[in-house]
Amino acid sequence: MSDWLHFIKSFQSYLKIERGLSKNTIENYTLDIEKMTAYLSENGIQVNPVQISEETIQQFIYEISKFVNPRSQARIISGLRSFFSYLIFEDYRVDNPMELIEIPKLGRKLPDTLSTDEIDELIRAINLSSNEGERNRALLETLYGCGLRVSELVSLKISDLFFDEGFIKVDGKGNKQRFVPIGNTAQKYIEIYRMQRSHLSIKKGHEDTLFLNRRGSQLTRAMIFTIIKDLALKINLSKVISPHTFRHSFATHLLENGADLRSIQLMLGHESITTTEIYVHLDNRHLFEAVRAFHPRN
Fold this sequence. Notes:
Elements: H1 2-18, H2 23-42, H3 54-64, H4 70-89, H5 116-124, H6 133-146, H7 150-154, E1 161-162, E2 167-171, E3 177-181, H8 184-197, H9 221-234, H10 243-256, H11 261-268, H12 273-279, H13 284-294
Antiparallel strand pairs: 1-2, 2-3
Helix pairs in contact: 1-2, 2-4, 6-8, 6-10, 11-12
């Protein structure tokens, strides 16, 4: 599969340099291609990206559909489509073998939203006497208070904090920067954590990283997932939650309290308002209250 490796590395460079995509996005594209190369290897199919046919790819898609859900299947198809479009762009191929392969139809899957009481309960469950207690409280308050993606949270810098102005600077998808308001609660707990942080032995290169692990380097995304999962177990929360649940709750609570979609879109860093509409869950009660409050017949 050395031929594939060459094309994959070239594709990665294109995504990074030409399209300015983040490391995480590039890794996801790569994983999609590697799933197909693993299938080819396991079945003894010796073809390179220039030679592979639509029929072979269709068979691969059929096989993975037995093991992955439609949403994951759609993402893999989308990743492969981008890869072969790149090969056409670079004149390696004249056709895209993904052109006639349909993406499964997906319904809008709305993740669980936490109530303010549930968020408070999760944060109260943090053991503040532990070495990581103040850090964990500060990062959860920031996650919920600013609606950040987990990748944005772990890469947040001290130099990105503009507390006098009430904002933080966030490096979002595709290295696009935005300024997000930060409330007094999150500011207070970050400042408390920073006093504790000053006693850490910080590794070179991480002096400006806000949230650090016990070894003085940047936290991983997986660590944030673990912190949240452990707290959910601790309070016997029945919902399946992740860092993104806090982001979704941030947007939902703002909308329910009167914020407009355009403002939420800017704070979340969505390019399209359509994306914001997918992330923001409007329950029937909220819709009913809106009609009752604002329709002239009521």
